[in-house]
Design goal:
This protein is an alpha/beta fold and 343 residues long. It is 35% helix and 10% strand.
């Protein structure tokens, strides 16, 4: 199967010295209100989620690939463009108090993250945490990524979820990732492991329950549905916020069926989820083309009821570093344009 990041080219990026952000906003801002559409963007704080060795296509890194100055520029641009939510892909990006062994060189202190969360909220941007627990994207878990479905694994993952929820002051959502857990997506990995059948559901529901116990709503990537539609519809809790993702330029399902039935199904998923009563945050990206996000908004506003359409998420899928700054700014501009087109 083609990965969302197959063509992603990453390079070594310098890491700026950790320090205070210079553009602190002191004025308080209201959080995103219930019923208000999410106009979100995702940024990577951590990056060890696509390979388990330094020789992998997207190499594991022992230095944080997030530069403070670029993070600040991008989030400031988000505010200027009217975006109201930032999904923070944390991974190894912070120095967890419960498991400090997961930190790498440059990982943010808890104090630094909390200061940034305050800044974001002051800018009218709701920060939401993401820890990807897919076996395909959990290199950030260090040695625990090779203890999948063991007692120790459950203990560590629960510790991290509880700590992050506390750091984020009980966020509205917690994104669990949980995408692309297949052997094919790990073909370049040195250590390959997947869950399937009852074990997949056992572990997934463990994560859902752990997040629910923090009075936070679980949020996931929805691609498991593409290959397990019947069981997904029967067993997926409605409390889980769904982000189906599709990054193509064509949204005409009948046209897509003539060339690729599987691609057509990915677009059809938005409609299937609406019929099944799932709340959705459809997800687009600018990593493969510049028209996808606008197309996603246009298609989904026509095919998802207002009751279940909670907003939209942009996913640039590049490191938060200077060499990708233009890509990040284009991603934000596309959200701004799509938002304006709805008025």
């Amino acid at each position: 199967m083609l990965s969302r990041r197959t063509f992603l080219k990453t390079g070594a990026a310098s890491v700026l010295a950790a320090g205070a952000f210079t553009n602190l906003v002191s004025a308080a801002a209201e959080p995103v209100k219930e019923g208000q559409l999410i106009w979100g963007n995702m940024l990577n704080l951590g990056h060890n989620m696509w390979g388990d060795s330094v020789t992998a296509y997207t190499p594991k890194t022992d230095k944080l690939l997030c530069q403070d100055a670029i993070w600040e520029k991008v989030t400031n641009e988000m505010q200027a463009a009217g975006l109201n939510l930032l999904l923070i892909d944390i991974g190894e990006g912070i120095q967890y108090q419960s498991h400090p062994e997961l930190a790498i060189e440059g990982s943010w202190s808890i104090e630094k993250l909390q200061k940034e969360l305050k800044r974001l909220r002051g800018m009218g941007i709701e920060p939401i945490p993401k820890l990807n627990f897919s076996a395909c994207h959990d290199t950030w878990l260090g040695e625990y990524s090779r203890m999948l479905s063991t007692k120790k694994y459950y203990e560590v993952c629960a510790d991290l979820i509880k700590e992050v929820c506390e750091i984020f002051d009980t966020p509205r959502f917690f994104h669990l990732g949980y995408d692309e857990e297949t052997a094919g997506h790990q073909s370049s990995y040195e250590y390959v492991v997947i869950r399937q059948g009852e074990l997949w559901w056992h572990d997934f529901l463990f994560f859902v329950d752990t997040v629910n116990k923090q009075n936070v709503r679980p949020w996931i990537w929805s691609d498991y549905y593409w290959h397990h539609a019947d069981e997904f519809l029967k067993r997926m809790p409605k409390c889980v916020l769904q982000s189906n993702w599709y990054y193509g330029a064509e949204f005409d399902i009948e046209k897509l069926k003539k060339t690729n039935e599987f691609t057509a199904k990915r677009v059809q998923t938005y409609i299937d989820f609406n019929k099944a009563g799932f709340d959705q945050v459809p997800t687009g990206s600018n990593w493969s083309n510049d028209v996808n996000f606008g197309g996603t908004v246009e298609f989904c506003t026509k095919n998802i009821s207002k009751e279940h359409l909670k907003g939209f998420l942009q996913t640039p899928w590049h490191a938060t570093t200077e060499n990708f700054l233009e890509h990040h700014l284009k991603a934000i501009a596309q959200v701004k344009a799509a938002k304006a087109a709805l008025k």
